Amino acid sequence: MPFILIVVKRKIHIALVGNPNSGKTSLFNSLTGLHQKVGNFPGVTVDKKTGTIHLTESLQAELIDLPGTYSLYPRRADEWVAYKVLMHADKDIKPDVILLVADASNLKRNLLFCSQIIDLKVPVIVALSMNDIALKKGIKIDIEGLKKDLKVPVIAVDPRKEKGFNELKKALAEIADKTNITTEDNFIDVKGLAALPIKQLQDILPQLSHYASIHYLINHENFPLDNALQEKIEQIEINNQFNPIKTQAAEILQRYQHIKEIIQKNVSEPNPLQKKLFTDKIDNFLLHKTWGYVILFFVLFLLFQSIFWLARFPMDGIEWGFQQISTWLNQSLPQAWWSDLIINGLVAGLSGIMVFIPQIMILFGLITILEDSGYMARISFLSDKLMRKVGLNGKSVMPMISGFACAVPAIMSTRNIENKKERLLTILVTPLMSCSARLPVYTILISLAIDNKYYFGFLSLQGLVMMGLYLLGLIMALIVSYVLKSFINLKEKSFFILELPVYRPPRWKNVGITMLEKAKLFITDAGRIIMIISLLLWFLSSFGPNNKTQQIEKKYTTLTQQYPQQKAVLEKQFLSEKLQNSYAGILGKTIEPIIKPLGFDWKIGIALITSFAAREVFVGTMATLYSVEENDNATLREKMHAAKREDGTKVYTLASALSLLVFYVLAMQCMSTLAVVKRETKSWKWPVIQFIYMTGLAYSMSLIVYFLFK
Fold first, then answer.
1. What domains sit in the chain, N to C, each tagged with a CATH number?
2. pTM of the model
């Protein structure tokens, strides 16, 4: 009988921590590859990234990438997330081992956080990254000496080249069994900071180390403790006149004094008066008070254009593919309501989701390249002054610029804004940026209303109007943010502390992983809501009250039998009349009195409703509505140009076309954007407020424009 060996794998949890820009994310991506999951920490919108790594044949680890933080004294929401996990105050995540990433090129700053983690008396390993940059700076580190002084394993790694990974995995496997560090040999004299309060607290909570006791005394209100225990800790503070600020200040001074000794002993640094690193030299140009903004504008122009250039072909391919699928289904499926549901509901809704994927992947790929190269921090630094005046900060500029491509990934990218109020303001105004889906609307309406004139032989009037629409969205976003900042009652202090990383070539594996991760996140989260609303819109456009649809079908069946040679024309008329008498069509007629002051008719009203699925649906809706024209060879533009109202006046005059353009610039016309806003804010409150204010703004501005040009 054959002998079967079954290996039972044990699983541990490793928390990955470190300062921002220390190489933590690169290490996470390299260790886990595509074995990653992305979610949110409970109650907050901070990303929770987890990945699986195999340490040995029998030992597997779940690596949890915690938000970057500079110390164990949190300020931002994401720092609180990391802090609670490290203090074992998070009920969902209990790490067995701490993997701390330290930047070798800036070791003094990184050792503050490192020393605090060591004093928590948990199993910890230090992964020393950025060693190549340290060498370029002339910094030499005695790793063995550093290991001896810190009393924890220290391993040099290079995530870009996957160097030191075997040694790191071996060390993680060895330390995994050391679930408790009993020694009280602290990095500093922690007990001397508050000896009696620490002793009294450890009598109640004996599992706490001396340093963890300090943090329980300072932040116990933020930990999940019962009321009786909270009162006991509070009484210890009162009885001993415990002062958190003085204790923290004394601790930091002691740590830096010890860190200075370790640096002098184990780190050889060049004279600071020696020639500057390449990064410092190039920043003289990129952060110049004049040329810095010129270069920034050029970089953003390339980014903006590249999204269109690169996404156009895959988007066209996806649209063509779904068009072929729809054509095949039309030819293969019988004429029935469920066939229409599959073709115009499910397939159309799925197409509306998938067509966004190239832009999302390309946008986040380009942003990751800017981040990896080190230039993203410079963009935030240069734009902070302007953004702060309207209630935002420098980190708001990239989501807003990304909104020119698509508001969906742009809103997703606001997660790196720490201040809740500034992040919320950025989310609320980003949809005012004119996304690429509005381009078909702009193009056809501008061609109807604006003459194709050129000034000075090269300045196109139509092109200037197009640029004006984009500028209008940007200017209104800044104005709206300035107004809303007074109404959003969030009192969190705003800090814009930014570290400028060195310039480095992007790590392409990291770029690829990010692109796939963001695409998956969009499909699984926002995609579900888009599909639901797409099916709802299909129902509203396909059915009407009082069996009206059946009457219309019967009417055109009879006409087709009587005039078979007119089948194509009758089919177009049938679709138009069916839409006109559907719930969506009735809604268009119902809202016509409301939109009539803007110069719109009921057909435009239907287009406003149907284009809520996606802005470019406007053109398709117009194509269906105007298919009843006798001249079958006329283009949509010609049909719209010839369109007249019941009184014989033209529908698309200069005033009405400009009014409609302004409406599409300012109105919330995309359900996927609202879906993502709901996901990011964890509430329907802000999407509703956003929809109401944008609709009101679009209506009032369109009304003004219509009367100015009437």
1. 10-175 (3.40.50.300), 190-268 (no CATH)
2. 0.59
